[in-house]
Amino acid sequence: MLKRVIVSLALLSAGPAGAQSYLVQPNAASCLSRSQAQCTALHCDGTQTKYWWPCQTLTDGTVAVVVEPTGPFGQSVTVNGATAGLTVGEVATLLSQATLGTKLPWVISEAAFAARFTPVQISAINASVDSIVAPSWTAVKAAATTDLTSVGVTTLVNRLVTLGLIPASQVQTILAPIAVAQVGSAIP
What we know:
single chain; alpha+beta; three-stranded antiparallel β-sheet; two-stranded antiparallel sheet; elongated; disordered N terminus
């Protein structure tokens, strides 16, 4: 009997671990049903392992099945002789992070990112000639959206702290994803 335990779907709020794809569902029940169907097809025990894929609530209220690029939580998997996965139709409707954009809670508009800083901080950042801050801030301002989990953004924010342009206590607020209700606090 296959057993898989996910401690909490809240882990997803930290952002993507890789190039995940998203199968958008109209609501939490649909997302959990699809995830559970995968688990059933793989002969999960239904108690310790009830759902296969995690679900991520999007900022528009829809909920997406999160599909990893490869491995057991990818589009298809064989476990203990059972093969299951997304249908051809579902694969055709998978969306990338770039396509979903600000529907993902860790991707916000450039204006929303800038609004997380005070006017004094913005002035200091704009005036900075630091070799990390200047090009990073220019790139952020040029982009339509900001991925709060990207290496470039986290490096920028950490450098702002190092230079004393923002207090360390503000980092968590600056990099916080948009609050969305998580689907299921734990699996099972």
